[in-house]
Amino acid sequence: MSDDTAPELEDRMRDRHHPRTGALRLKLMAGAALCALPVLGVAGASAAQTVTGQTVPSQTTPPAQTPVVQVRGADGLTPDALYLEANSAEREGDTVNAKGGEAEDRVFARFQDHTLRAEDMRYDLKTGIAEAAGQVELISPDGTVVHASQLQLTEGLKTGIAVDLATRTPEGATLMAATAVRRSENISELNRVLFMPCPVCENDPKAQPAITFQAEKAVQDEELRAILYRNVVVRVGGVPVFYTPYLAHPDPSVDRASGFLIPRIDYEQGLGLSVEAPYLHVVSPSEDWLFSPRVNTNVAPLMNVQWRRRFDSGTIVARGGYTYARNFGDFDLDGDGDAESKVHFGDRTHRSYVLAHGKFDLGDTWRWGFTAERVSDKTLFDRYDVSSPYQDNGLYYGDRRRLISQIYAERQTQRSYLSVAAFSIQSLRLDPSFSDTDFRDPDGFKVFEDDNRLPLVAPIIDARWEPEGPVMGGRLRLQGSAVALTRDAYVGFPTLRPEIVPANPTDDLPGVDSRRVTGKMDWRRVMISPMGLRWEPFVDMRADVYSIDDLPPFLGIDNDTVSRVRTSAGVDVSYPLYRPFAGTGSIILEPMAQLSISNDADLDRLIPVEDSQTVELDHISLFRMDRFPGYDLLEGGWRFTAGARATFNWDDTRSASLFVGRSTRADDERAYFIPVPDAPTQLYDPSGLARRTSDWVVQGTFDPSERMRGWFHAVMDGSGNLRRAEATISGDWGRRNSGALSYILDSSNPLAGPNNRNYEFVQVASQQFVYGNWGITVRGIADMERDLITRSEVGLLYDDDCFRVEIGWRRDNTRVRPTGPSEGIFIRLNLATFGGNGYDDSQLR
Length: 845
Description:
The chain is mainly beta. Helix content is about 0%, strand content about 55%. The strands form 4 sheets. The protein has a 26-stranded antiparallel β-barrel. Strands 4, 5, 6, 7, 8, 9, 10, 11, 12, 13, 14, 15, 16 and 17 form a 14-stranded antiparallel beta sheet that branches. The longest helix has 9 residues, at about 5-15.
């Protein structure tokens, strides 16, 4: 085709009834396009057609007019453009007609960020109306696919009509209707509707959808973000199980919308039958309320409320509950030695809890936050089975069965960190001094820790800073810390050293208050020799100042100030060895050692031990300058630590590792010994660091396949006796079967007795499908020390792509339960598309 024939061809395209040509049929090959066609009379737009790989110029914009600049979409088309592939196409005025074949030979068109396929298509360039027939398929930008036998869409796709509609959302939900009318940008009406919230197995022609909603009529309101049905039949596995004249649920495409969530149903001896029906009220994309009344047949209901709000700079989540009722449980009220079963006692009173937290950013480097956690009764969470009351929020975490309320601010840059905080604690733990009576007083009531014995921490300050460049070729770090602790009631050991704990009654003694300021300098330099030996010399300097008030009167002093300084120097040495084998396999051997020397540790007996009571020796802490957490206990003298790690990699997915290490010091450190709970005159070493040679640390991982993994950690004394151990192995088999087994042991206390704090637990959790989507679940925790199953669950499970339901029996026999052993039936239900029993903060915008 020559350039001379282009104007003639363009004239024929603009008038297919030209007397010389009649109806013009253009064969458009793959990649041909009708692009940049004028829509709605846009002045100055140009048009061009590409036919069999050659471009035919169109009329140009008159010089007096300014061209209209149009932004192109992700597909490269302007909003008024049409891209077309077809067996044949023709244009009559502003209308483009295209024809294709069946299946993959249908017409292919792109316009307004949508993709359309059909056997026949008609597109009006002036009005923007598109009509299609025959195996119509329309794909929207979000991935939603609409199928129909006939489809008509107006300009902007704001309204339309479809016959034999079927659509599937990216989430897997399917909606079908005999006819559908899109009356506005937000409202669609459907007749003879079938809705399936989850996908159907395409490989099984006999498979029935798990849940379907069959309705006479439905209205999809995108502004309300809901689908409203009339005369609905709900089917499960194809079997009708429920009818309602009206039904509504959130649109499957929305993250969240107002409405009822999946209810929680339980039966427990103390509560009776319990039903918790959560209702979510969405105020805005950044705010919502969750109302969850829990109604019980045996006791008064508990009202749970949660409020979430995202601000420009942060988020607040506040959760609470309230009831007006008497207590209930197993108690020996008449003093005959037998506990009455599930009795009610005491006067009715207000009972409530609050669990709130917030976090806010104040620019690039500063942020602040808070937590507020309190409960009126130390047993309320257990009695009413409140979900997930113990969570890690804020700068400091309250451990299991301890609530923490705090406010904090922190600043972090690339080279520095500063935090300032204050917090108080509420304990829901049992009082260990009553362990020999199952933590019960003479009346049979559980006895809990006294909150007055827990400190008010205000303030607690932590700071770190590093200069930008190396200092003497190494990394220099300066640290500072300060804390003030105030108590209302006296606490002896372990806060006070055993030698200064009075033997006489201490009920009237005040709590010991303390303040500490610490400064620390740490310098390290890494050097690698030509043969690959890694040397890391270090210098550590630290100074502490303590101020102590309200000391026990028998010491003869009410308050005192104690200061101490420690200077340490040493070197870490390691020599990693690597050898590949058998394709992608490898062996890595890494022997390592540390030699350090310090002045003797100053462990003044007046310094309270608040933050160094628990030591967990592992492959990392073994090589630290201070193996004790916190600041109150420190180590001194000379010390040599050695260990080795071996790692075997068979390929990218299979591996195993093993670490063994131990430390030696110059002398025993008597300050690390503590009294045996059942024999106070005898001492033992729970830390494993008091003697010249520490406990052995053995730790490893194993991943023999993609479906199995495990981890173990053990601490043994010099005789090879196991003092602490923890191991976990988990795996999955088949498509959905899985299981996990855990073991934990603490046998560091050498003597048996009522106050013995040794423990040994085995925990198991597994699910096994036995027929199709049907299976069983098992969960349990066994207390091997007391030969008792503390918690157990056995359930029947049904799980498919649409919903998961568990129905089973459970028993809770933990010591902490104030009401004694409890057993009952539980039901857990989660539906795809509609969600489960809860939601998360990531849904807020």
